[in-house]
Amino acid sequence: MEVKVLNVSGKETGAKVQLSEAIFGIEPNDHAIYLDVKQYLANQRQGTHKSKQRNEIAGSTRKLYKQKGTGGARAGSIKSPLFNGGGRVFGPQPRDYSFKLNKKLKELARKSALAYKAKDNSVVVLEDFNFDTPKTKNFVSLISALNLSEEKTLIVLSAANDNVYLASRNLQKTKVITADQLNTYDVLNAGKLVFTTGSVKKLEEALAK
């Protein structure tokens, strides 16, 4: 798949990039995508939720009233889950939600997500760029020149760039990552993928095997 390279003004540079068929041209595997996204979201969970069981509630353990003769159900403790302020039955407890996935499956999921974006013509290739200062207005100008102001945009750089990252972090619809941070969830969550020429090479080195 051949894509024209644009400059920061949104105009064609005359250069073209050949996107690898081994990455952007495969038949997508939906189940691999599902598992990888599920793992990503599970890993975001802190798992610190906690409710108190009856043995953790502060309160007296004396029997509330005699066992028989009251006409009501027997009760042994104010901490019972049946009473207001009592312990909770089978409540949430701290846990780790993460689970393991094989590297090859995660690679297949990333390739599948990229293939979907390529089929939708949602991949843009930009020449390598930099900002002299980390100003948001510079980044807004770039996004406007590419006609992506209304799109959820994922920009993939070849290496970390503080000026570009700091200029973009106030914008809700834009996320900047490096090629080695690329994951299935971010690819699918974005409306448009913007790669720099350097990040395309790095991605192909990592995934085109």
TrEMBL record:
Gene Ontology, cellular component aspect: ribosome
Keyword annotations of the record: Ribonucleoprotein, Ribosomal protein, RNA-binding, rRNA-binding
Start and end residues of each stretch annotated as Disordered: 45-77
Keyword match RNA-binding: yes
The keyword rRNA-binding belongs to this UniProt entry's keyword annotation: yes
A matching Pfam family: Ribosomal_L4
Assembly and oligomerization: Part of the 50S ribosomal subunit.
Family as reported in the entry's similarity comment: Belongs to the universal ribosomal protein uL4 family.
Function as written in the Swiss-Prot or TrEMBL entry: One of the primary rRNA binding proteins, this protein initially binds near the 5'-end of the 23S rRNA. It is important during the early stages of 50S assembly. It makes multiple contacts with different domains of the 23S rRNA in the assembled 50S subunit and ribosome.
Name used for this protein in its record: Large ribosomal subunit protein uL4
Organism the protein comes from: Pedobacter alpinus
